[in-house]
C-alpha cells in the first residue's frame, strides 16, 4: 500500500513538474513572440517610408541626367565616354539577381548579361545595352533632375523641395554592408502601373546612393 501511495505521489510530482515546464516554455514562447512582434512594430515604424507609396512623388527616369549627360538607358560606348572604363565586370548568372532590367519577354535571361561596376555604382549590361541599376554619389558623380543638380552635398532638407511627401515620411533601412541608412521611396511613373520604385538613401543627412527596386 505504501509503495502504491509513493508511486502515485511520484506521478503527481512528475505531472506537476511537466506542467510547470510546459507553462515556463509557453511563457518563454509568448515572451519571444511579443519581442518579435515589438521588433516588427519598431521595424514598421522605422520603415514608415513603406506606407502610402502611391502618394509619394514620382521620379521619372526620363527626366534624370546622370553626370549631366545620360538618361538611365544608353549604350556601352556612351558609358565609356561618360564614366570611363569599368572597374570590374561580373556575370549576372553568378550574382543570380531575382529580376533583370533586360530580362527577355519570356522571363529568361541571357547568360552573357553582366553587371558593370564603376565607382561603386552598378550598371546592367546586355549586349550593347546598358542601364543604371544602382548609382552612388561619390567621386563627383551627380544627377540633374528637372534642372536641379543633386550630388553628395545635397541634404535631406534640399530634397524636400522636390519630394516633400517622401521626405516627411522618411524611414530607415538596414542595408547590408552599410548599416542603417535613412531612405525614401519614389514612384517610377504617375499611373501606378509599375510594381517597382526608386529608393534614395542618405548617409549622415546627405545624398548617398539611389537604387531601382523591382519585386522578384
Give the structure's gist in a few sentences.
This protein has 216 residues and is α+β, with helices and mostly antiparallel strands. The protein contains 5 helices and 12 strands.
User: What form results from the Cα inertia axes?
Assistant: globular
Protein structure class: alpha+beta
Low-confidence stretches: 1-49
> How large is the count of helical segments?
5
Question: Roughly how many Å is the radius of gyration?
Answer: 26 Å
- Terminal residue distance: 71 Å
Strand content: 25-35%
Please count the beta strands (DSSP E, at least 2 residues each). Answer: 12
Number of domains: 1
**What string, H for helix and E for strand, traces the elements in order?**
HEEHEHEEEEEHHEEEE
Most strands sheet = 9 strands, antiparallel
Helix coverage percent: 25-40%
Average pLDDT metric = 81
Give the key terms.
216 residues, alpha+beta, 9-stranded antiparallel sheet, 5 helices, 12 strands
Your description of this structure?
The protein has 216 residues and is α+β, with helices and mostly antiparallel strands. 31% of the residues lie in helices and 30% in strands. The chain has helices at residues 2-46, 76-83, 92-95, 156-159, 164-168, and strands spanning 64-66, 73-75, 88-91, 114-118, 121-126, 129-136, 143-145, 148-150, 171-175, 179-187, 197-203, 206-213. The strands form 2 sheets. Strands 2, 3, 4, 5, 6, 9, 10, 11 and 12 form a 9-stranded antiparallel β-sheet that branches. The longest helix has 45 residues, at 2-46.
Amino acid at each position: 500500500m505504501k509503495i502504491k501511495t509513493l508511486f502515485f505521489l511520484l506521478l503527481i510530482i512528475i505531472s506537476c513538474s511537466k506542467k510547470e515546464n510546459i507553462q515556463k516554455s509557453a511563457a518563454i514562447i509568448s515572451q519571444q513572440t511579443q519581442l518579435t512582434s515589438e521588433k516588427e512594430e519598431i521595424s514598421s515604424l522605422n520603415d514608415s517610408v513603406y506606407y502610402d507609396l502611391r502618394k509619394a512623388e514620382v521620379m521619372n527616369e526620363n527626366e534624370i541626367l546622370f553626370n549631366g549627360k545620360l538618361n538611365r538607358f544608353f549604350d556601352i560606348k556612351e558609358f565609356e565616354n561618360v564614366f570611363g572604363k569599368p572597374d570590374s565586370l561580373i556575370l549576372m548568372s553568378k550574382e543570380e539577381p531575382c529580376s533583370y532590367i533586360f530580362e527577355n519577354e519570356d522571363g529568361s535571361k541571357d547568360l552573357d548579361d553582366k553587371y558593370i561596376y564603376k565607382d561603386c555604382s552598378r550598371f546592367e549590361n546586355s549586349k550593347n545595352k546598358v542601364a543604371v541599376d544602382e548609382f552612388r554619389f561619390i567621386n563627383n558623380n551627380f544627377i540633374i533632375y528637372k534642372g536641379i543638380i543633386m550630388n553628395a552635398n545635397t541634404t535631406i532638407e534640399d530634397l524636400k523641395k522636390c519630394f516633400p511627401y517622401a521626405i516627411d515620411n522618411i524611414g530607415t533601412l538596414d542595408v547590408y554592408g552599410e548599416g542603417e541608412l535613412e531612405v525614401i521611396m519614389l514612384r517610377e511613373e504617375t499611373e501606378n502601373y509599375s510594381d517597382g520604385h526608386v529608393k534614395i538613401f542618405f548617409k549622415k543627412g546627405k545624398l548617398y546612393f539611389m537604387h531601382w527596386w523591382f519585386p522578384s
